[in-house]
Write a structure and sequence with these properties.
1273 residues, alpha/beta, 6 domains, 6-stranded mixed β-sheet, ATP-binding, transmembrane helix
């Protein structure tokens, strides 16, 4: 039918609904400035176009284009449209959610007659679930109810929670932990329903839901929409975005808004939508889901240039038609609330946030339960602190009272407060960086505050960590070191450790509030740690600090903790006057003897530049510092909420159509039949209420056929697909034991062999690199996965074809993005993940919810492509929650699982309805067959008849399977062909690319991903230069007098801290890259050698640059020894410590998947190496001294001291001379002898080089063994 004239359509009557307008959006335009920063653009312009102008054209992207929509009170409005049409963006604008600063909004939004959004309560369901992984479903809803319904009593909240559990089909998993990426728990659909339940707890006037049915089975999705419809009938204004609603949802919608690429194609009553498009010249065919029809109408078909041209012309016509209709009715104002009508209601909002005290109580109880259920994090915090206490206490065990013993006591006191504080700081930085995501989410919902978040974290950890770890550390360390047994002195030591603990935690909160990026927060923590070291007064006496920088010590916590501990040890709390403690003077037993002056506590405090009566004043000051840091963190969190960052790459889409590309003939896939013989998973222990997770199931997945696995959420679909593809989670195998067998062409294969012939598309898309574009992602995947017989151009062309087939042409040069960096939409990410797996054309393709988050047009296109793959002879299996009626014709076989993981139907798709008809169950003609069978397999909560129905269907299916098995046996004995592939499975034995080629590809991909993350580059390159500047401000220029001995040695000791920088850099990037490697290594795309080599080479230039700057400051700026040789030794020392620290971090992160525990153990080991360096402790026990052979800081400090001290002479005053008139320390050689660093320089340098190489080699070996173990498991 030809389109009619827009002027004729414009005469349609306006929306006839008489309901009052709740939200009225007028002329809303959301634009994105994707241009690079001006300084960055100018820098690039200088390199590429010297003398040219800065080009900013083409960087403005319109996301919403002049949108005007009215949402009426007490109605359910569905916003329809394809992926990337602007549905989520419109909801974000309506809710005034935090958006990137690169985005700007113009237009007006009126909320019930008031332009102030805070005049009403809005609940918002985000597209991605953000939930506490260690809590059960019931606990999560209960705690949320306490925060969102603070005026209800406990009984009322319990009734509401129980009702939600029943209505959302969550009763069966109410006591199951939610789980997430790192923890096994609820299924994706169950987590989605829990998120919906959290928002339904709110007494809001408006409920906005971004894809509320994503990840839900068809029955539960319908039930959720029914609940939303009931809420709308009760007066709540509900606005949802939805991709592919099933046909029986259509009647539940009151209003429809149809979007396409940010423009409105229709907005009005549901019943008037189809007639409107009929008048536009587009008539809906019979027996078609109206919602699917509208989404298809608004979709841009980018599979070919002709399709794109035709669909673009259609959309332009529909857009102009609706615009002219809006213009013709513009004078008519829709009824809205008036200010006078709101005067009474505005005084009392229907929902109130909880009071601070109630918020603290709820969050503290919730956090405590979450911490207790994270034993690895607790073990990491406790294990790191106790290991440091034992080893470091052992290092300083039974210190004598000689001059060397005095220096060891000074080092032990500094070690007690500084290294312990850094351990707590780094551990808290990581954990807070993880936990703050939930706070940011709840903060936007208006149920938590920055004060409640910060205070509740400390309250929940008081007994678990804050009040218990410092005493345990003190008990071990204090008595190991052999300090005074005075109870008063022990108590003062304990108080200082508590204050060090709380100050470290407070600054960790401040760093995380400043930046959510762990590397940036770690950068701030390391600078703070460096300031703590140099300003404490141990390495450089406070009297020798330059005036222009020495004032910083007064705002540094370790200056007070070290000063108090030193006064406590050398003066004593009982008598701050006099000479203090008197140590073993070899010249006299009289403390008044001038020759014994340096053995008195008073002289020691004076040489350190510390007040001798400093014990209780620092306590007050430290409390104030901790309070200020915490207050500052709270203010930053309150006034500077998290905003995502949006970055795009310039558009450069090349139009490539499949017919225009010529490929080399692809090898035919081998036919692999997968047979399940009573396969299932049963609980190993008898404590679980549910003894079986899956099955037993007996069925067959045949090559050349597309099999759809359906069923309710939690029925075991994901578990079954994971088992079929050889990717069953280790946690699942630890808890459940498999029964029966899975045969591949009548052969049992181990999981690592199955992964060679089977690809698996996960339900999530976390493996995608956020800083690559869609096109770049697919090109790298094609170059890695496609056979080496294809040229690079052919591989890129195949990627381009799949990109076009899956409708990704319009976002081909947009970054993937993540939770921080705004990128493509969730539906577009889903399609990218699918293409990444099917590009290599495997023999078996397994997909878990491939259409989740896709609109009906794109979802059908994906199913068509998968059907074509199956027709080529592949075995294609997918799970699907909400299949449309049009998809049914593409399914060859269907497996329907009941709520207990047992099959309700298994067989050809064309026989499914006939099978149920034979059981006396008819499918209504107005209902989709797929929705019908999923409803059959999903009983309503509390419906005993439904449970009996499912049990009856399971039993009938077992009888049917036995009957079909007997038929197969009779056919095989009569010589009939089984038509099923048989024989062994041909397994590829090598990677598709040789090492050199795969290594270069991985290196190029990682380099491109890193180059798009300037924060990472700056943080990695500026950490050591920042430390160098700070050290130079305190130490430069180094003198050559007696007091400068301690300053010079203290300055060189800072090299031990360079390893902590390497740890922070590794923990910020390595875990995510490791997970990508595991995934790709499982397909034998490349090995640990390629990954570790590219990781090392990529970080090498950044590390060499930062180490070179650090070495320049060491040799020349501080005047340690301004020679080229000193620069070279210093450069090697810095690089060795930095690289070794990163290697040790990689080793622990590979051995321990929990990053928090890995950080604690790495920090503890590096802390031990710091103490064993020979500067802090002069008498290391022989057993521990052996650790120096594997300590990079030991070799670095020894080599730098050796080179800088040789031939150096020190001056001294009369008071610093011995009785014979010579200086206490006169030459650099005497310093080396005192610190036992008399080894030749070449041996120290050789040890440093060997340690650096050995740790990186060990990291490679551990990764290789771990990846091999991971593959076999």
């Amino acid at each position: 039918m030809r389109p009619t004239d827009p002027q004729d359509v414009a005469q349609d009557p306006p929306d006839s609904s008489t309901a009052e307008v709740c939200i009225q959006a007028e002329n809303i335009t959301l634009s994105l400035n994707a241009a690079p920063r001006l300084w960055k653009q100018r820098f690039i312009n200088v390199l590429t176009n010297p003398g040219g102008h800065v080009d900013t054209v083409g960087h403005q992207k319109i996301i919403l284009d002049d949108v005007s929509i009215a949402f009426r009170k007490g109605t359910l409005t569905a916003i329809l449209g394809g992926s990337g049409s602007g549905k989520s963006s419109l909801l974000n604008v309506l809710a005034d959610r935090a958006r990137p600063k690169e985005m700007s909004v113009i237009g007006d939004i009126i909320y019930m007659g008031n332009p102030n959004i805070r005049s009403i309560d809005i609940a918002y369901l985000v597209q991605h679930d953000i939930l506490p992984e260690t809590l059960t479903v019931r606990e999560t809803l209960d705690y949320s109810a306490q925060l969102r319904r603070p005026l209800d009593d406990a009984d009322a909240r319990e009734v509401v929670v129980q009702s939600l559990l029943q209505r959302l089909h969550l009763a069966a998993c109410a006591n199951t932990r939610l789980g997430g990426e790192q923890r096994k728990g609820c299924s994706g659909g169950e987590r989605r329903r829990a998120s919906i339940g959290i928002q339904l707890l709110s007494d809001a006037e408006i409920l906005l839901c971004d894809e509320p049915t994503t990840g839900l089975d068809a029955t539960t999705a319908l039930q959720v929409i029914k609940i939303l419809n009931e809420l709308a009938q009760n007066g709540l204004t509900v606005i949802i975005s939805i991709h592919a609603p099933r046909s029986d949802m259509w009647q539940l919608f009151d209003h429809i808004a149809l979007l396409s690429r940010g423009s409105v194609l229709y907005s009005g009553l549901r019943e008037e939508s189809i007639p409107y498009f009929h008048r536009c010249g587009y008539e809906m065919p019979s027996f078609v889901n109206p919602a699917e029809y509208l989404v298809d109408l608004a979709a841009t078909d980018t599979r070919t240039s002709q399709c794109e041209h035709d669909s673009t012309a259609r959309l332009e016509y529909l857009k102009s038609t609706w615009a002219s209709k809006q213009f013709s009715h513009q004078p008519e104002k829709l009824p809205t609330y008036t200010t006078s009508a709101l005067s009474g209601a505005s005084e009392c909002n229907p929902s109130q946030p909880p009071t601070l005290m109630r918020e603290l109580c709820v969050l503290t109880a919730r956090n405590m339960k979450m911490f207790i259920r994270d034993p690895k994090a607790l073990a990491g915090a406790w294990g790191g602190a106790l290991a440091m206490a034992v080893v470091n206490g052992w290092v300083f065990m039974n210190m004598d009272r000689s001059e060397e013993g005095i220096r060891s006591r000074e080092g032990s006191l500094w070690n007690a407060t500084e290294l312990y504080g850094y351990l707590i700081l780094v551990n808290e930085l990581y954990r807070m960086n993880v936990e703050i995501k939930l706070f940011d989410h709840e903060r936007q919902d208006g149920i938590t505050t920055s004060a409640g978040f910060l205070l509740s974290r400390r309250a929940s950890k008081l007994l678990l960590e804050d009040l218990t770890i410092p005493p345990c550390f003190t008990l071990i360390y204090y008595f190991f070191a052999g300090y005074s047994h005075s109870a008063r002195q022990f108590f003062i030591f304990l108080v200082m450790m508590w204050l060090s603990h709380f100050n470290a935690i407070s600054f960790a909160g401040l760093s995380t509030a400043t930046s959510r990026h762990f590397l940036v927060a770690g950068f701030l923590g390391n600078l703070y740690f460096t300031l703590q070291m140099v300003a404490a007064g141990y390495f450089i006496p406070s009297t020798q600090m330059p005036v222009y920088i020495g004032w910083l010590r007064w705002i540094t916590q370790t200056f007070y903790t070290f000063g108090a501990l030193a006064a406590n040890e050398f003066i004593g709390a009982e008598s701050p006057s006099g000479v203090g403690q008197f140590y073993d003077c070899p010249y006299s037993n009289n403390p008044s003897d001038p020759s014994c002056k340096q053995y008195t506590g008073a002289y020691i405090m004076e040489s350190l530049g510390l007040p001798r009566d400093w014990i209780w004043k620092p306590v007050v000051i430290l409390c104030v510092i901790a309070f200020i840091c915490y207050l500052w963190a709270g203010l930053i969190l309150h006034y500077n909420p998290l905003k995502p960052v949006t970055r795009h790459v310039g558009e450069r889409i090349e139009r490539i159509d499949p017919p225009e590309i010529r490929f080399s003939p692809a090898p035919s896939p081998q036919a692999i039949a997968i047979t399940l013989q009573n396969y299932g998973l049963k609980e190993k222990s008898q404590l679980s209420k549910r003894s079986s997770l899956l099955g037993p199931i007996s069925t067959e997945f045949r090559p050349g056929r597309l099999t759809a696995v359906m069923g309710a959420s939690g029925s075991g679909k994901t578990t079954l697909l994971s088992a079929l593809s050889g990717r069953l989670a280790t946690s699942t195998k630890a808890r459940y034991q498999s029964i029966g067998s899975i045969m591949y062409n009548n052969t049992c294969l181990p999981e690592d062999k199955v992964r060679l012939v089977a690809s698996f598309v996960n339900q999530d898309d976390v493996h995608l690199m956020p800083s690559l574009t869609v096109r770049e992602t697919l090109q790298f995947v094609a170059r890695l996965k496609l056979p080496d017989s294809l040229s690079k151009e052919e591989k890129d062309a195949r990627a381009e074809v799949m990109l076009r087939k899956f409708g990704l042409g319009h976002c081909a040069d947009t970054l993937i993005g993540n939770s921080v960096t705004k990128g493509i939409s969730g539906g577009e990410k889903r399609r990218v993940s699918i293409v990444c797996e099917i590009l290599r054309m495997p023999d078996i393709v397994v997909l878990d919810e491939p259409t989740s988050g896709l609109d009906s047009f794109i979802a059908l296109s994906v199913i068509e492509i998968l059907h074509d793959l199956a027709r080529e002879g592949r075995t294609v299996i997918l799970s699907i929650h909400q299949p449309t009626a049009r998809m049914l014709r593409y399914f060859s076989d269907i497996l329907v699982l009941g709520t207990e993981g047992l099959p309700v139907y298994s067989g050809p798709a064309q026989d499914m309805l006939r099978y149920f008809q034979n059981l006396g169950i008819e499918c209504p003609h107005t209902m989709s067959p797929t929705d019908f069978v999923v409803d059959l397999a999903t009983p309503d909560p509390g419906d005993s008849s439904g449970q009996q129905r499912v049990g009856y269907l399971v039993q009938k299916m077992k009888e049917h399977e036995r009957l079909m098995k007997n038929v197969d046996i009779s056919q095989s004995t009569s010589g009939s062909d089984g038509s099923v592939a048989s024989g062994s499975v041909h397994l590829p034995t090598t990677s598709r690319n040789p090492f050199r080629k795969s290594f270069l590809l991985v290196l190029q991909r990682a380099a491109l991903n890193l180059s798009r993350q300037p924060i990472l580059i700056l943080a990695r390159t500026l950490q050591l230069p920042g430390m160098a500047i700070l050290l130079a401000l305190f130490f430069a220029p180094l003198q050559k007098d007696y007091l400068a001995v301690q300053s010079r040695v203290g300055f060189v000791q800072q090299y031990a801290c360079v390893g902590f920088v390497g740890m922070i850099q590794s923990m910020a990037t390595y875990p995510s890259e490791r997970d990508v490697f595991y995934r790709e290594a499982s397909e034998k795309l490349y090995g640990a050698k390629s990954f570790m080599l590219q990781y090392t080479l990529l970080e090498l230039p950044l590390e060499v640059f930062s180490c070179a700057v650090f070495a320049l400051f060491t040799a020349y700026v501080t005047d340690l020894n301004p020679t080229v040789g000193q620069f070279g030794v210093s450069l090697l020392g810095a690089f060795g410590c930095l690289s070794s620290g990163e290697s040790i971090s990689i080793i622990f992160s590979t051995l321990i998947s929990h990053s928090g525990a890995a950080i604690s153990l790495t920090c503890a080991l590096l802390g031990i190496f710091t103490v064993l360096g020979g500067v802090i402790s002069l008498h290391v026990p022989p057993v521990l001294r052996a650790l120096n052979h594997i300590s990079p800081p030991k070799y670095a400090i020894a080599s730098i001291l050796n080179y800088s001290m040789k031939g150096l002479r020190f001056t001294c005053t009369d008071s610093q001379k011995k009785p014979d008139g010579s200086c206490l320390i006169g030459t650099g050689e005497e310093v080396l002898k005192m610190y036992n660093m008399t080894d030749e320089l070449r041996w120290s340098l050789m040890g440093l080089v060997l340690c650096t190489l050995a740790y990186r080699l060990l990291a490679y070996v551990v990764l290789k063994l771990r990846s091999t173990w991971w593959l076999t498991k």
